[in-house]
Amino acid sequence: MSVGSKRSSQAELCPDGLGPSVEATHLPGRPHWRAPGPWTRPEVQQSQESLALQAAGLARVDVLRDTEPAVSFVHRFNSELQLDPETLARRNQITVSSPAKFFRVNPALFYDDVLGVYFNLSNLIPDRKAPEIIIAGDCHLGNFGTLRARDGSTFWGINDFDMAGKGTPEDDLERMATSLLLMSPLEDGACRPLVERMALGYLEELRRLEDTKAPVHNGLHREESWGAVAALIDKKSKNTQAELLDEFCKHGRLKRNHELKDISRREEQLIRDFLPHWESQVAETPELVRPLEVLDIARKTDSGGSTFGLNRYFILAAGSDGEERILELKQELPTAPEQGTGNTEEANADYIFACMKALGGHFEPTMAAGTIDNDAYYVRERQREKGSLPINDFTTFQQWEELVDHAAIALARAHAFQAGAAEKILQWVGPDQELVVERLQTYAETYARQTELDCAAYKASLSKA
User: Fold this and answer.
1) What is the mean pLDDT of residues 184-193?
2) Cβ neighbour number for residue 317 with a 10 Å cutoff
3) What is the pLDDT of residues 105-116, one digit of tens each?
4) Residues 200, 101, 156, 371: is their CA dihedral positive or negative?
5) Which residue among 63, 187, 305, 337 is the one 20 to 30 A from 254 at the CA level?
6) Cβ atoms 156, 163 nearer than 8 A
7) Which of 388, 408, 390, 394 is nearest to 185 (CA)?
8) Distance between CA atoms of 213 and 261, rounded to whole angstroms?
9) CA nearest neighbour of 352 among 333, 330, 329
10) How many percent of the chain have pLDDT more than 70?
11) Tens of pLDDT along 288-305?
12) In angstroms, rounded to a whole number, what is the distance separating the alpha carbons of residues 184 and 188?
């Protein structure tokens, strides 16, 4: 059992939880660059030639590679996770259930393509390099929801920073735009103006923040939201701790069911050995009895997208007000924008957590990172305010328009939380806003088609195994 070193003080948030926080260059160094992808020079050259033909109006590019590299990549990635056969089968079942699920489960493949055959297409301004900042990494539309702000209020914004790392704003925009086409039941022709709305809303919010120099909060509060997001904030802000405990606990213990399972003695000892490190890292937590009084620990199964199958635990702890609190201990993957591997021992807990904080993702005082048995973990409270929109049921243009509007603002605020990032992004775009929109639309449409083909091919490969 080992624990990570103390978090870098250079990445501390402002006391009130508002930004901007730190320059991207002040974060810990990257753990290492990932190994080169499977693309050969002829494949890259072929994609460049296809793009040149498209730009000249001589050809229409559907996708930039065949499916075999993607199938091989996902099989290799999953083998590196070292999951038991039953968990791997369940992960595969989820992966091929739809192209949207395939996309959500495989952010590492997305970045392997961005740094491979899709590199040229991903450059939204071909003759001008985008600034390197800390990005959310897995910025699909399913990774937004309600959370508790540091002041105790409920807000809506990005709720998953597992893949945060160094990249460009293009990466987050392209992943979000592609997810729109894959998740929405609307025709591509209807999604095209939504992608434009996303890009323009993002840039408009960056300009507003840069012009006003207003404090940055990662997300939208009730007074800033409308429609389904406002209704969700209203609903979740009324949730009580008693209701949360009733969902997961019974007679002072965590319920054992299809979601919560018993853990081994070794797992329990590793977790209990880790908790003193956690306590040394977190600020005062008046809701919890300190030193921490652990009442029960259970494994949380069937959770996560890209992290499905990794270790996740619920820790029931005594509360100072007589109501218990649930802490979630979650294993992390290496950050996809930089490494693209399923080898969990290559994940760097301090680095991931520092990137999360740089985006304003350090929402409440129980959050801290560390290492257990050579794997990266972080702890957070299971918040009663946590909730998400039923976007699988969204069928109208207006519903998707509202979602895109809110997501664009939330993403802009996450990027702008870093000191100087908004100015750098706006200087990069300059007078080429229309070009950014057009190329973002093309990227999303092309990569959505690529994902559909990859999903079908991977599903076929499983039937042959």
Assistant:
1) 94
2) 22
3) 999 999 999 999
4) negative
5) 305
6) no
7) 394
8) 48
9) 333
10) 87
11) 999 999 999 999 998 888
12) 9
Residue 296, class by beta-carbon neighbours within 10 Å (0-12 exposed, 13-18 middle, 19+ buried)?
Answer: middle
In the predicted model, is pLDDT for residue 24 greater than 60? no
In tens, the pLDDT along 413-422 reads: 999 999 999 9
Distance of CA 220 to the CA centre of its chain: 17
pTM for this model (two decimals): 0.88
Count CB-CB contacts under 10 A for residue 403: 23
Q: What is the mean pLDDT of residues 118-125?
A: 97
Q: Using the structure block, give the residue that is written with the tokens 């001589």.
A: 58
Secondary structure of the chain in HEC code, one letter for each residue:
CCCCCCCCHHHCCCCCCCECCCCHHHCCCCCCCCCCCCCCHHHHHHHHHHHHHHHCCCCCCCCCCCCHHHHHHHHHHHHHHCCCHHHHHHHHHHHCCCHHHHHHHCHHHHHHHHCCCCHHHHCCCCCCCCCCEEECCCCCCCCEEEEECCCCCEEEEECCCCCCEEECHHHHHHHHHHHHHHHCCCCHHHHHHHHHHHHHHHHHHHHHHHHHCCCECCCEEHHHCCHHHHHHHHHHHCCCHHHHHHHHEECCEECCCCCEECCCHHHHHHHHHHHHHHHHHCCCCCCECCCCCEEEEEEECCCCCCCCCCCEEEEEECECCCCCEEEEEEECCCCCCCCCCCCHHHCCHHHHHHHHHHCCCCCCCCCEEEEECCEEEEEEECCCCCECCCHHHCCCHHHHHHHHHHHHHHHHHHHHCCCCHHHHHHHHHCCCHHHHHHHHHHHHHHHHHHHHHHHHHHHHHHHHC
- Tokens, residue 230: 């406002």
Nearest to 215 by CA among 14, 10, 427: 14
Tell me how far apart the alpha carbons of residues 232 and 146 are, in angstroms, rounded to a whole number: 7
Single-letter amino acid code for the residue at 276: P
Q: Which of 303, 313, 308 lies closest to 263, judged by CA?
A: 313
Distance CA 180, CA 142 (A): 9
